[in-house]
Amino acid sequence: MLYNLLFPLADEFGPFNLFRYITLRTGGAIVTALFVSFVLGPAIIRRLRHYQGAGQPIRPDGPAGHLITKKGTPTMGGVLILLAIGIATLLWADLANAYVWAVLFVTLGFGAVGFVDDYLKLTRNSSDGLRGRTKLLALVVIGGGGALWIMQLTPAPLSTGLAVPFLKDVLLPLGWFFIPWAVLVLVGSGNAVNLTDGLDGLAIMPALIAAACFALIAYLAGNFVFSGYLQIHFVRGAGELAVFCGALVGAGLGFLWFNAPPATVFMGDTGSLAIGGALGAVSVVTKHELVLAVIGGLFVLETISVIVQVVSFKLTGRRVFRMAPLHHHFEQKGWAESTIVIRFWIIATILALVGLSTLKLR
Length: 362
Fold this sequence. Notes:
This protein has helices at about 1-5, 20-50, 65-70, 80-90, 100-125, 130-155, 180-195, 205-220, 225-230, 240-260, 270-285, 290-295, 295-315, 325-330, 335-355, and strands at about 160-165, 170-175. By secondary structure, the protein is an all-alpha fold. It has one domain (about 1-355). The chain has a two-stranded antiparallel ribbon. Strand 1 (about 160-165) and strand 2 (about 170-175) form a beta hairpin. The longest helix is centred in the N-terminal third of the chain and has 31 residues, at about 20-50.
C-alpha cells in the first residue's frame, strides 16, 4: 500500500523513490510483522486462554509427558501469525501485483481450514477435529484454485513447466498436469509443517529459515539481471514475493518469542497449514518446487517418518520408530525437548544452505 500511495509521488518528494526498492520494503515488512506480533501477541494469547480454558486437547496416544507439560497451553496462535503477515504484506507490498494476492489466497485459505479444525478440537474437547477426508478435500480445493490462478498469471512455457535444480534451461512441460502437481506441492507442504509442529519452537524456526531463503529466491527469480547471471528462470513480478516472505519471517520471529520453550501458545493447525501453504505457493510461483523439498527437508523427513511408520505397521505389524513423527521418536529415546528442537534447527539450517547452493551450481 505504501508503494502504491507514495512511490507515484517520488517526482514531488525525492525520498519516496526509496519505496521502489524491494529490499527496503522487505526489511520494512520484517520489522512491521515483528512489531505487530509483539504488540498484539499478549492480548491475543490472553483472549485465547480466556476462551479455551483447558487449552489445546493433548493427544492421548502421544508422549505421556505432554499430558503434563503441555496441558493448559492455548492453541490457535496461528491467528497472530496470519494477522502479522497480512498487515505487513498489505502495508509494504505492491498491491497491483497479482502474485501477492494469489499467495495470500492460499495462505489465508489454508489458515481458515486449520482454524476450523482447531475450533472443532476445542469445542469437542478432543484431539480430533475435521474428518481427514473433509480436511484434505478443503485443502485440495483451495490449493487447486491457487494453482490455477498462478498458472494463469505466469506466461508460457513457465506457466506449466517444472524447473529442475542444478540443470540450467531445463523446463519439463507438464501441461494441465501442472495443476495436480502444484496442488500436491501446496497440500504436501501444509501437512508437512503441520506434522512437524509437535514441540515448542520446533516448526516455526525451520519455517522462517525457509521463508528467508525463499525471500532471496523470489528476489533473484524476479530480477532479469540476477536470474540471467545465475541461470535460473526469470519470473516477471515474482520479486514482490520477497516482501511477503519478509512478512513471514517477521511474523515467525514474533511468534517464536511466545512459542519458545516453555511455550505460552501453540500455533495449531491455523498456523502450521497456513505457513506450509505459503511456502508451497511461493515455490510454485518462483519455479523452485523441488528446491523447497531440500530447503524444507526437515519437514520432508518428518513426513516420511510418518509414512514409513504407517506402511511398516500395516505390512509387517512392526514399527520402525518408537513413535512418529520423528521428533517423538527421539523423545521416547530420552532426549530432552530442548535438545531435539535445537538439533532439528541445526539440520534445517544445513538443508537450507544446501538448497540455496542450487542457485549457483548449474
